[in-house]
Design brief:
The complex is a heterodimer.
Chain A: E1 4-8, E2 11-15, H1 29-38, H2 45-61, H3 67-78, H4 85-91, H5 96-103
Antiparallel strand pairs in A: 1-2
Chain B: E1 12-13, E2 16-17, E3 25-29, H1 35-38, H2 44-48, E4 53-58, H3 59-65, E5 75-77, H4 79-92, E6 103-107, H5 113-128, E7 133-138, H6 139-146, H7 149-160, E8 165-169, E9 182-185, E10 199-202
Parallel strand pairs in B: 3-4, 4-5, 6-7, 6-10, 7-8, 8-9
Antiparallel strand pairs in B: 1-2
Helix pairs in contact in B: 5-7
Classes of the chains: A mainly alpha, B alpha/beta.
Chain lengths: ~110, ~200
């Protein structure tokens, strides 16, 4: 897999080797929906909770959140104490944090955590 | 954990040389430590061929340094796996009588941006497994972190999400930018995880 182009709304958006946006400035909710659709995912409110948390976290700290922090945040924001990593993997069937970064317009995490 | 480029014969742990360390032995190479594995005639290869010795390396640290293909005698691994193995060892040694043994990490010297980034990764990987952590800085090390803005903001997550306790030694609080949640202490040292059955890392 090499660099590629994703066509959306009449524009060509450049993606890196791993399918992440090369320029995070290209991101928009509409682009995220289109990329998710290509992955076979229809983004729900819960998907957006995850994506928005990951985007906010990345913007603040420069890296994605640990999965346990993401799960704690979702439990709190949605008032769903039973929300678990299993639920997260149901939403994002690849690696959830990595996939949320991709759909949120951020690079693939460059660590092995 | 081998965190620096160090000759095989100079590696010591708890005062023991590599030949004296008990087997089975699992060595995990991280950060600059992976550099020693990259040479064609790496002396680590002979150790890897010894029975009951396994060498593993952090795949991210390797890729970051762009060393190319990985020697067949060393296995790819991750920081989380390192801590999982360490925790398993602690459990078997019965060090959990009073809860998790704490992990103490001390920064004595300034680091460059990559050094701070990889140090933070060690800590976040431990946080993934809910390890209790005490992190201590001396003044120059703390100032070096504050002087690297991207790293400083990344380290802030430890405080905002209460992933670790941070203490700076040897500096008055008004000598540096005070970060919310950071304790300042005039004395050199406070806790000592190793004496409580935990693990101490020094940088």
């Amino acid at each position: 897999m090499g660099e590629s182009v994703f066509k959306h709304a009449g524009a060509a958006v450049s993606l890196d080797d791993d399918g992440h946006l090369i320029d995070p400035g290209d991101w928009s909710p509409s682009l995220a929906r289109a990329m998710a659709s290509q992955d076979g995912i229809e983004l729900t409110e819960l998907h957006w909770e995850v994506i928005e948390f990951v985007r906010d976290y990345h913007q603040r700290y420069g890296n994605p959140p640990l999965m346990r922090l993401l799960i704690a945040a979702i439990r709190k924001s949605l008032g769903r104490p039973e929300f678990s990593s299993r639920d997260l993997y149901r939403l994002f069937t690849e690696h959830p944090i990595r996939q949320a970064c991709r759909l949120g317009g951020y690079p693939k995490p460059d660590w092995c955590i | 954990m081998v965190r620096a480029k160090v000759p095989l014969n100079d590696l010591r742990h708890d005062g023991l040389s590599i030949d004296e360390l008990p087997r089975p032995l699992w060595l995990f190479f991280f950060g600059e430590g992976v550099e020693g594995l990259a040479a064609d005639n790496s002396p680590w290869r002979s150790l890897a061929e010894e029975e009951r010795v396994d060498l593993a390396y952090c795949t991210t640290a390797w890729e970051r340094r762009d060393y190319g293909s990985v020697p067949a005698w060393v296995e790819g691994s991750s920081l989380v796996q390192f801590w999982a193995i360490q925790l398993d060892l602690w459990r078997r040694e019965g060090r959990f009588e009073d809860g998790d043994p704490p992990l103490s990490i001390r920064f004595n010297a300034p680091r460059d941006a990559l050094g701070w980034k990889e140090s933070l990764e060690i800590i976040l990987a431990a946080a993934t497994l809910d390890l209790t952590m005490l992190i201590e800085f001396n003044g120059p090390a703390w100032k070096s972190l504050l002087d690297a803005p991207d790293q400083r903001r990344a380290w802030q997550q430890l405080l905002d999400f209460e992933l670790a306790t941070l203490t700076v030694h040897g500096l008055p609080a008004d000598a540096v930018e005070v970060r919310r949640g950071v304790a300042f202490a005039a004395s050199r040292r406070s806790g000592d995880a190793a004496s409580n059955g935990g693990l101490a890392l020094e940088f």
